[in-house]
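G., the chain you wanted modeled:
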Amino acid sequence: MQNWSFAPIFESPLLVVGIGVALLGLISLIRPYRTLTSARRRWLVGLRALAIVILGIVMLRPGRTVTEVQTRQATVIVLTDETESMLQPSAQDDLSRWEHQQQTWQQTSVFLRNQSEQVSPRWFGYTDRLSQQRWGQAESEGDLQQPKGKFTDLGTAIHQAVSSEPGQQIHAVVLMGDGRQTAYRGEVDIRQAMDELRRRGIPLIGVPFGREGDALDSKDVAIEQLPQQFRVFSGNEIEINAIAKLRGLLGQPKQVQLKLTPSDGPTQVIQTLEVTATEADDIQPVQFTFTADSPGTYLLEVSAETAEGELLLANNHQTAYLTVLEGGLRVLYLYGNRLGEQLEMRRSLASSQDIELTESYIRHLSADDWPDPRANVLIDQEYDVLILEDVHADAIGEENLAAVAEAVADGKGIMMVGGFYSFGPGAYLDSPLEPVLPIEMELFERQEVGADLPVRRIFHLDREIRMQVTKPHPLNQLESSGQIWNQLPALQGANLFQGVKASGEVILASEQNEPLMVTSQHGLGRVVAFAGDSTWRWARLGFADPLRRFWRQNILWLARRENLQQRDVWLQLDQRRFGPEAEIEFQAGVDVLGGELLELEKLKWNIALTNKENESQQISVAMRGGVWEGMLPVLPKPGEYQLLAEVTNEGQSVGKAMVNFQIIDEQPERSNPLADFQQFNRLADMTADSGGRVVAPDELDKVLLNVIEKASEQEVEIEMSWQLGATSSSAWLLLLILSGLFSIDWMLRKKWGMV
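Predicted structure as tokens:
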């Protein structure tokens, strides 16, 4: 059926007629016609009248609409799995999932080409992202490479495929693969993708490849949760904990070994344990204990025996790094407040290779259980320096305090840090430590114990306090100019000392000359009384390096090692195991122990990244707040890597540091040899109302034929419209006709001497 119509300009046919009449009237008024013969005049009038008629037709804009009834062509989207899991065995003997999928798709593509008049296919490959549309470009399965995808993201693949056809009715989505979702955080959730299919009435046809069965039917031994690094001083016992996950091995004992590999020696088996699964899918703890002897850097490996028939072997072992340090200064730190110096102090001291820190928290909610049994280490354990922060004297006990006083007299060092239960408020008056401390205390300043009791702030400096150097001392020399104390953040408060003993030496004070740090000697030992407890703010406000130096210098001075000159170059990674292509940041620095000071701006760093094949590349760093920071390049290849740094100062070597790490091959696509048929069933059920189902590979063509026939039953009226001048062909034709008429008019007038 066809219809003709007009769409005149300005929607007014009368206006078009008026313009035509006016133009025809102008022809008769042109005077040169009077000098022409009637024949010639008829020619010119005829040509111009014809041009006006054609122009009038153009202004009327005639058009034609043809309506035809056609059957609908089916649009089918096919998604093929291109991840490494497809290399696992399929349900057919001697075929991998990939080979089985290739055969199926090759047969289906032939079927779709034979139905080309009734179906419009779209073909995509998917991993954790969707490929380009391939139908008509690489239909031959032989043109495809082996599957290399590391992760599967079903939700993103389905959603992006459907979204690639906006406004187009899609009659089916065919999902081929093993159904395993391995992407940890997909761009599109599976439920969101299926909601889009339900909304548009699109059935999902699942075609699973692989072996169906319960995951417990497969066998697997995996070692997990091994910490990434260990650090211990030589001669100390170390405990290594991990777990063994046993699947499909009920009642079968398996050996688990701890192996130790030094940086320049052969691997040794340190200990062998046996674990036995008590359930079909079981987790058994694994714990090794041994004594670290020789200082050095070691590779630790916890390795499990392989099970017969086990397909995934990469998870049978896990490695970590062990650093054994030479015996250094032993520091015992007891604190009663988790909000004080403890966090940043522990970080500062733990980063020193020569300081072995032992710490313990003493509770102060009630005095009923005092002395706290955790303070008994003061009698039993050897230490070089003791630090007490906000710990009540009664929580330690008179016997322990007497042992401390005796140890200080024999040459040990002690430092008391400020707090509500330090010094006089902590009842150290008349305690065995009273003669040891270099400050005076009064009975009336004692603080009552209890979480609900108010703090007697009259015996504290309850304001912001800036520390000032009163006289040069190894403890207040944080940098060469001495100006650093004017830049450091103020303390948020401090203990108010009632006085300083004659033996005490004030080395730091407030702006109002109130003593903040007092040093002295008791017998052969050294003593520091520090009224503050908020130097931790230095690290939070960009002064981490002065904070580390402050605490280290206190420890060295108390241990009588202030003249020890030692330079420690260090490298630090937040972890030692990374996934492929992870962003890896690191920090580096130089810690100088003793009185030597280095100008950090003059230090030159040479940092190299080396892989197992000894291929090396240089890494750049930038200094921020006394610490150098850098970013490693993307490392897609799993394996062992080493970061080696060397620092020079005006051509002289300052020191070297080395840190090892791993890029691990997580292999999520190979973690289970069985296909997830239940996943296919769940997805198909979500679109069951539209015809969603799960089919065997050899039944796919029959199902697609049903989809095509169902789509062909839907008749669609298709309108084809045409309008004069709207198409390029009609526009060019009109232009040629009008140009021809005007050209003939001009040629005749020239021939007759009118131009």
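The CA atoms of residues 243 and 285 lie 4 Å apart.

Shout if anything looks off.
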